[in-house]
Amino acid sequence: RFQRGYPLPPGPKSLPIIGNLHQIPRKDPYKVYRDWSEVYGPVIYMRVFGRNFVILNSLKAISDLFEKRSVKYSTRPNSVMGGMLVGREQTAIIFMKYGPKWKQTRQLIHGWMSQRALDRYIPMQSLASYHLLQNLLEDPDHFADHIRNSAGSIILKLTYGLDCKRFNDPWIAMSEEVQRITAIATEPGRWLVDSFPWLRFVPSFLPGAGFLRWAKESRKVAYQLVRSPFDKVKQDLRDGVASSSFVLEQLLQDSGSLKSPEEEEALICAAGSLYAAGIDTIVSTMRMLFYIMARYPEIQRIAQEEIDTVIGSHRLATIQDRESLPYIGYLIKELFRFNAVAHLVPHSLDEDDIYEGYIIPRGTWVIANIWAVLHDASTYKDPEKFNPERFNPSGNGEMDPTYVAFCVGLGRRFCPAYHFSQTTIFLNVTHILSVFNILPPANSNGEDCLPAMEFDVGHIRALRPFNCRVIPRSRDHEELVNHATTMSETSY
Ligand code: HEM
């Protein structure tokens, strides 16, 4: 428990060899870690087969390490299965180690997300939001599929210039499959090879080496996700039919001259990172909106009244209306806080560090428990209650999770798409609540049967599937959707 004369941070008692493996919670781990902090304090140490884990449960500890010591804490931990074998380190920036390749990829993404570029994306984001409304009108039962389609189609259009099908699009299905693979590959404690990296050298035909065969197949699928849309842009460019997009702009930047293989790989990775990171985060947030509206009709009513008063029922809101819709603003902040999409965010360090008298050994998985901070009762009154009013400055005016940008990360790895996602979510939330009433599902006796809130936890926290009724508020509202879509398609 002592290294270089400093103790490791406190934590639950471990067993020989396996360490704390038997204590790693399978369900809602962020809650269990938060509860542990009442016994051990905000910085907790665990060990699994010789691998070190430190959980940070307070905003102070996360900001002290990820922000104030960002030079040290900006790399990602070793993930043998997810990062190396499935190859996510090469195909998505989010898994990449800090270093020159990360900087090159991040620079490309910042170009894509510059203020000038963001302004250009708004018409496309609006159109995707109108298409979402249309799909909801035609087929309200599959609202979750339509949310995914809408979030994915924006990213694919802007990144690669690809037009998605309105239903069952293969590019979006592929991203969903990679998300599933990534969640399995990065599940803490699932793979022995993460603790014993030498296992990756055993011959894959041996019994017990099924994990290597799974990794090989999954690697192919994950590489396809980033390679095939990129190749399509290049092919379209050769055929003279490429639509404008981030990848096309980059390819044309050097007046069409070929990029070096390294530059091409960085571009494939930057584009693929947006495609991989930009869909499920929005989907998780928007699915939570549907659940909350079905669960709390009073909150829905207040939001709709604000929209009706400020916007009226003869048009849909635009991004310019954001400042005039304060309650919608509080509602979105509360969605970010309550949902905590990225609940446990892992960083790592390449050299030992001392924090508050404890040693954090190099290579440790240092995990920010973002959920714990966003549900801390000393910051948020009744944190388990969904209450947009908590952000009203004339009321409690509680800490804004989006203002401190906390829910999208602190330090050098913060989410580069923060403003982009705020726009998408504002448009989606406002448009949906303008046009639809969202009601809980009813059983054969007409009683509300919305299930209790349960989450699937991979590296993204997502509500388990649920049903709800999505009903247009009036015939005029339906017309509004058709009108807005036609106008937008004509001018786009
Ligand atoms: C609800 C919306 C979103 C939330 C809550 C969110 C949250 C986060 C968080 C917590 C991180 C990790 C920060 C860290 O490691 O310290 C992150 C990273 C990232 N996000 Fe987002 N995100 C959202 C939407 C998006 C969208 C729409 C895109 C792309 C279009 C995107 C692209 C990325 C990328 C590329 C990274 C990796 C940054 C790096 O490792 O350097 N995110 N996001």
From TrEMBL:
Its cofactor is heme. Keywords: Heme, Iron, Metal-binding, Monooxygenase, Oxidoreductase, Signal. Heme binds at residue 415. CDD domains: CYP64-like. One of its GO terms (molecular function) is heme binding. Pfam families: p450. It comes from the Eukaryota. PANTHER family: P450, PUTATIVE (EUROFUNG)-RELATED, P450, PUTATIVE (EUROFUNG)-RELATED-RELATED. This is Cytochrome P450.
